[in-house]
Structures are given as structure tokens and as C-alpha cells.
């Protein structure tokens, strides 16, 4: 799963016993050499899915990590791109990467639950961060996203279809979440990272309550499930007036 440049087992254990913020500060220098970094094929699929809806003015990569999603926004936005994350270590790693061609890129340390922006963005994207938010936090999170979007602005993110019950992937994710719950029951500070709490039906309802109209687009490069449904979708939520 990890390249030779990635973290050691000991480093991962130290991260897992830290807070979310501290854990990512520690992991940041080697994060891009782990499976946790969003794959390029996902980034490219999202960029292709959003391209017909653009071009956009200003873009925000929410919970940007080391900045992989900023490259998507640089292809789609004309007036500027911002990456926001609450981990200083991840932002430091992001700043060390070559700046994508296109509009100016800025980096801001910020908690997604209390964003320090006005309604200045036309597109907000996020990749792989929602497992760090408990279901009860989604209304506040989506409210924050709405507050930084201009009317008609869009909030977009990819979601994968849940694994088939009984499959190896199903048991792997179930076991990970169970282990994380035990860890958080026994150890402080908590490390919030769950794979099975971000359910598309619940997400759609919370987006509607927050003032979004949501459309789903298949990401065809990931194929279909046996029932014909897509293995991956792009959620595009438009901010209503």
C-alpha cells in the first residue's frame, strides 16, 4: 500500500494516537506517498465532469491537504484558486509543490466548520475529507460552504458506491470503522476518520436543508456495478438564492 518513501508503521501508529490536526501535521511530509492522497484518475474525472459547467471565477479546495485538488481548480477557474486546510503541516507541504499553471493560488489555514471567507467563490471542491466529520456536523459544514459561495455557485465532490455487503471491501471498511470507534472510546484526543458515515442519501437531504439543489453525474471511467449503477458519481450542489 505504501511506497518506500511513505510513513513507517511506527509513524502511522503515532499519527493514529494523535488528534486529527496533529496527526496530519506529522503525516504531511510523506502524505503524497500514501494511498490517502486522492488518485490522479479521480482528480481528472472530476475536472472532466465539471468542465461543461464552467468556466468558473474563483475556486476553493476545501480541506485541501497537500493541494492535489488545487490542480483541478486551476484548470476550471479564471480569477484565482484558494486551498484551505486546518493542518499547518499539510499546507506547508502544499506550498512546497510547483504552482499549477493558471490563476493565482493562495493557501489559507482554516477550519471547514468556521471558514474565514465571505461569499466570494463560484466553485468549492473537496476530496476525501468527509470521513473527518461526524454526521451531526454535516449541517454546519454545508452551511459554511453555502456561506462562501456566490448565488448560483457550486459545491462539488466525488463519491464512490458503497461496497456490496459481504464483499472483502465491505468487511475491510466495517473493521476499520469499528477499530476507530474502539480507539476513540479508549484514547484521547479522538481521531475522527470513518469510511461508512458519509451516505449519499443523508448527504442529499442535508444539502437540500442547507439551501442547495443537487445533481448527480456518473463518472464513467470507473465503470458500473452489476446492477448497472455507476461505481462513482460526481455530486454537484448548486447554491440557491
UniProtKB/TrEMBL annotation:
This protein's record includes keyword Transferase: yes
Methyltransferase domain span: 60-153
A GO biological-process term: methylation
Coiled coil: none
Keyword annotations of the record: Methyltransferase, Transferase
GO molecular function, one term: methyltransferase activity
Protein name: Methyltransferase domain-containing protein
Gene source species: Streptomyces tagetis
Amino acid at each position: 500500500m505504501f511506497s518506500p518513501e511513505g510513513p513507517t508503521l511506527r509513524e502511522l501508529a503515532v499519527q493514529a494516537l494523535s488528534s486529527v490536526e496533529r496527526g496530519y501535521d506529522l503525516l504531511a511530509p510523506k502524505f503524497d506517498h500514501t494511498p490517502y492522497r486522492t488518485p490522479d484518475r479521480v482528480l481528472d474525472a472530476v475536472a472532466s465532469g465539471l468542465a461543461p459547467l464552467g468556466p468558473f471565477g474563483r475556486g476553493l479546495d476545501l480541506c485541501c491537504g497537500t493541494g492535489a485538488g488545487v490542480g483541478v481548480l486551476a484548470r476550471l477557474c479564471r480569477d484565482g484558486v484558494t486551498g484551505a486546510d486546518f493542518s499547518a503541516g499539510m499546507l506547508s507541504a502544499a506550498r512546497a509543490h510547483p504552482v499549477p499553471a493558471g490563476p493565482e493560488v493562495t493557501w489559507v489555514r482554516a477550519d471547514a466548520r468556521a471558514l474565514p471567507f465571505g461569499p466570494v467563490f463560484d466553485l468549492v471542491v473537496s476530496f476525501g475529507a468527509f470521513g473527518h466529520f461526524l454526521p451531526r456536523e454535516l449541517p454546519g459544514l454545508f452551511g459554511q460552504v453555502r456561506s462562501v459561495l456566490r448565488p448560483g455557485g457550486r459545491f462539488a465532490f466525488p463519491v464512490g458506491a458503497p461496497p456490496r455487503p459481504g464483499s472483502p471491501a465491505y468487511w475491510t471498511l466495517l473493521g476499520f470503522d469499528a477499530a476507530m470507534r474502539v480507539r476513540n472510546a479508549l484514547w484521547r484526543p479522538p481521531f475522527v476518520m470513518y469510511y461508512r458515515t458519509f451516505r449519499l442519501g443523508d448527504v442529499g437531504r442535508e444539502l437540500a436543508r442547507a439551501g442547495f439543489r443537487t445533481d448527480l453525474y456518473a463518472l464513467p471511467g470507473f465503470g458500473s456495478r452489476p446492477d448497472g449503477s455507476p461505481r462513482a458519481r460526481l455530486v454537484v450542489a448548486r447554491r440557491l438564492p
